[in-house]
Amino acid sequence: MLALATALPTHALADWNGAYAGLTLGSNFNTEVSTELAGVEVTSDADDTTSVGIFGGINVQNGDFVFGGELALSQASDVEAEVGGETISDDFSILDLKGRAGFAVDNLLFYAVAGFSRLSDGDENANGLNFGVGADFDLGNNAIISAEYLTRRTTFDDEDPEVDVDLDSISIRAALKF
Question: pTM value?
Answer without folding.
Answer: 0.83
